[in-house]
Amino acid sequence: MNKDQIIGNWKQVKGSVQKQWGKLTNDVIDQIEGDRTKLAGKIQESYGVAKEEAETQIKKWEEECSKKNAA
Q: What CATH number is attached to the domain comprising 32?
């Protein structure tokens, strides 16, 4: 799933985001609005990880979503 797909399908992927990063509340997820940079920042804040780690987690999640959509 690429950036445009995430933004365009944000309502559909919010549940997947909540499942992956359970510390993110529904309000926070709504504020992210599919913005990858905002998502990374909220992961950093909520989980106390570095920017690079947050980006790695997002990339892995995107790859998993792509595999599910391809199946």
A: 1.10.1470.10
How does pLDDT run across 7-52, given as a tens digit for each residue?
777 888 898 999 999 999 999 999 998 899 999 999 999 999 999 9
Domain extent at residue 53: 3-70
DSSP 7-33: HHTHHHHHHHHHHHSTTS-HHHHHHHT
Q: How far apart are CA 7 and CA 33, in angstroms?
A: 7
Compute φ and ψ for 57, nearest 5 degrees.
Answer: -65, -40
Cα→Cα distances 26→2, 34, 44, 48, 50, Å: 22, 13, 17, 19, 23
